Amino acid sequence: MPEKEYKTVHEIFGSMLFDRRVMREKLNPDIYAQVIDAMEGRQHLSAEAADIVATAMKDWAISKGATHWSHWFQPQTELTAEKHLAFTMSDTEGNPIEVFRGKHLAQGEPDASSFPSAGTRSTFEARGYSAWDISSPAFIVKTPKGGTLFIPSVFLSYDGTPLDLKTPLLRALDAVEGRAFRLLRTLGQRGIRFVKMTVGAEQEYFLLDRPRAQLRPDIRFCGRTLIGAQPAKDQKLDHHYMGAIHNRVLRYMEDVERDLARLGVSVLARHNEVARCQFEFAHLYSDANRACDQNQILMETMRKLARQHELRLLFHEKPFAGMNGSGKHTNISLVDSEGRNLLKPSNSHRRNVVFLAFLSAVVLGVSKFHSLLQFSIATSGNLFRLGGHEAPPSIISVYLGSALTDLIRRLDNSDVSLPEKGIMDLGLAKLPDIIPFDSDRNRTSPVAFTGDKFEFRAPGSSQSIALPVTMFASLWAWGIEQVTGMVEAKISEGKDPIDAALEAAREAFRMGSSVLFEGDAYSHEWHDEAKRRGLVEAETMPDRIDLILKPENKEMLEALGVYRAHELENLRAIRMESFATGLEVEAAVLYDMLWEGVLPAISKQLTLERNSMLYFEDVDFGDMTPWRDYVGGLGRAKNALIKDANSLYELKGRLAGMDARERSDFLTGTIIPLMDEIRAKCDAAELTIAADIWPYPIYRNLLSLSA
Predict the structure, then answer these.
(1) CB contact set of 60 (below 8 Å; sequence gap of 6+)
(2) pLDDT digit string (tens) for 273-307?
(3) How many whole angstroms separate alpha carbon 221 and alpha carbon 312?
(4) 157-180: string of b/e by CB count within 10 Å (b at 16+)?
(5) The pTM of the whole model exceeds 0.90
(6) Which residues pair with 129 in a beta bridge?
(7) Least CB-packed of 230, 285, 451, 643 within 10 Å?
């Protein structure tokens, strides 16, 4: 009987994860304690201890059927990378031996020449190092004939320059968690041993019938449709959202969840999203570093199983024009060693003051460094998603809700003090416990407080959450440092720490008030108001990518130790190159689709109509003007599209001599508008051409799943 028919999720959960539970069982108490100390940053793991851990990890992996191992890292492609090495080799006499020691576990040396480095390295300079991230557990991905042990790792150049997204993330987490710990100790919480940032991501995606979707070059190569007329029935009826899940999709979801359960990833929710064939997974929050790994594991598992289910998985932020795109809402908070969420309001006056201190630090940090959040979500996919169909705009603002906004106004009034029971006295105490906060939700807000966490809604579905979390953690660390400085200064004046914290929070809210906004962030009025507040520093995606190099951003990130100056230059160049390259591919694919499919289809329809006219020339159809006008319209459409195709080819040719920034500007300012015009003409033609002649599956058929 297959495993899935008799083993529950509870029985298989974490079975392919080399976590603390397994290490406690496989390692002696002394080595286990050393590993835990290393995981929590108190000491480095000795070479002798690493050898023992490696042997235990190898034996465990082989017992689970693994035949290979790999350092698993996250280069700045936003994907993951792996190089599989065999556990078993032959000795000089041809006998099999198992080779995996502490030195293999701790460090690898994959070829680094072909990973993004912003042109700072020649192709012959290939050396790179992967190093074990001991804070994130190793895991096994099973295959029909065995499996591979994956060891989460950082990825560095030979000179120590990060070539990945994890290294800056770990630095940012150290910055925010260390400063949060200091603030708590300043406020008298001496029993706290550590603070951890927690993250939980909501992964939106589309599923299409794979054989049908693969007939479209734009979906195959770009992950989105470059042409396609709106179907008669799309999302306008609002019948899909949280409706009954299609049987075919449910089978896929169940398989994804079981594979993730083996890897210790808890899927908290699954449901239909707003658009047809759009869905969502939300995995349970965990510490931020592990959450970023888990989201990558989720995406890779989804890709693998989609192929097995003959489904085409789309993570692109805007696969279908005129319909909802896919984001990755990223929920962020801080938790202390006692398990208390520092962003959760309480009935305790003291706890609420702590809550307000950390809340105000976010507001202050975002108000000062909102451009870092803009930079972190500046991608080619988000170019088409942000600002409509429930996606937040790229202008960063913070929504706190009516209750907190009212409280902040009261804090700013020297005649009003915080009530004895804190913000729970604002009517919340009278409501059921299941209602955590007295405010509505604002779907247009990029950064929204949702009761016990901040939800950063702007990251795109295809993105790694590592960069957005890195930037959020950095600006929060800066904000906490400012609040802590204010608290310490007031304590030095003889004030009680809690009173000092309340005054510091009041001041931080006042200083950060420019970023607070409760209304419709789509409105033109808000855009104008945001400009007056200084929140609009970039109008285009290339401009937003450049924001990382603002002097104050560089100074802050360097001061926190998150990035060094040359690393920021590299990061900006890599993001700009990725942005331009993605759009260039789309322009090339659209050009091919025109000549290979759309233009021949118009000719076929013209031929059909002309032959019909000739065949029935002796039949009196009355006034033939509408028919002739239709045929003439097809001819004019073909002429216009040929002209546009030639223009697109000529414009693409100009890109060759430009650097990444020039290409990005030219693409967004000149080529993308032309592609939009071509799309409109193609979509108009699609509506007037026979279904058996049109060369590509249309939206109506794409957005339909067979049983």
Answers:
(1) 18, 22, 26
(2) 988 899 999 988 999 999 999 999 999 999 999 99
(3) 12
(4) beeebbbbbbbbbbbbbbbbbbbb
(5) yes
(6) 156
(7) 643
